Amino acid sequence: MNDNSKFKLGLFIIFAAVIFFAALFILGTMDRFKEKAYISTLVSESVQGLSVGSAVKYQGVPIGNVREIMIYPGDNVIRIDMEINISKFKIQQPGHAPVTISVDEFNDNIGKAVEKGLRCRMELEGITGSKYVELQPTQDASPDTFDIKEFGLEYPYVPSQPSLISDLRGSVTTILAKLESIDYKGISDRTNAVLDSINERVKSPKFDETIDNVNAMVNQARKSIENLEKLTDSDIRDKIDTISQNVNTAVNAVESLTKSVETEIKSIEFAQISENLRSFLSTAIRTSKTLDETLFNVNNGVDALIELILYIDSDPSALIQGKKKPKADDAVKNGGK
């Protein structure tokens, strides 16, 4: 190969390298020339796993990235500024193809969407430990608790909602609080008082007096019938006989029913029933104590679960990498534990 051919080959290689790097530069900077919009949100939970450059999505569709994360330590609040590629948002005009909205139109629409329930929420990006910000309309959006005037936001504001892990931690705490609020001892005491009252009424002498009063009423009715039968007038006597027979039949039925009721009542062993109820109540009280112990164990288990959730929330990568070993300096500080 002569010198002229070598020169041409070298010139070609240099020219190709210039074109290659120029193309990389253009592709890398092209995104900077796209029109952008910016929004902000405020959160009071850990943002572990979220960083500058993390994705911002609208119902799963990538629309931008996190531009800046700032801390307000006095209010325990973290501010997240997001850069939005508005080329993803289109408007449809009748008889025309969809066109990209302007920044002003985006800002107007984002405010209306917030009024209808648009909220920001941090979500896990798979099991890698990284997070992204999800924008999603919410039907039952909770009211915003931040006074945004205190933070001097320069971009349109979108309220946030707690992440899934934060919701889970709150739900577990609420359930545990409701279980602990049940007055099991009070229920047992009230049940015991009712059983004592029933036992006293069954053993009361008035119960037997009621049976005696019914028998007395039947005897009085029989005496009245006997007095009517002593009348001498035959016409009246015939009519009275008829009435007497009917009354006598009714009285016999009442007496039979009374004896049957008395027999059934006396056959009931109220003392045994009361004893059985007391035994049942004693078992219920022991069960209540066992339930209290179980709730105590559940409480400890929930505390451990909340601690695990907090750890995963602060370090989501632990799902894959496992819990990190303490550093040597930390071990010395903790007394070698």
What does this 3D model show about the protein?
- The chain is of the alpha+beta class.
- The protein folds into two domains: 38-161, no CATH class; 184-313, no CATH class.
- The chain is 57% helix and 15% strand.
- It contains nine helices and eight strands.
- The protein has helices at residues 3-30, 103-115, 164-180, 184-203, 205-229, 234-267, 270-314, 318-321, 328-333; strands at 36-43, 55-58, 61-72, 77-85, 90-91, 99-100, 118-124, 131-137.
- The strands form two sheets. A six-stranded mixed sheet has the order 1-4-3-2-8-7, with helices on one face. The protein has a two-stranded antiparallel ribbon with strand order 5-6.
- Helix 3 packs antiparallel against helix 7 (270-314), helix 4 runs antiparallel to helix 7 and helix 5 (205-229) runs antiparallel to helix 6.
- The longest helix is centred in the last third of the chain and has 45 residues, at 270-314.
- It is elongated and about 160 Å long.
- The two termini are 74 Å apart.
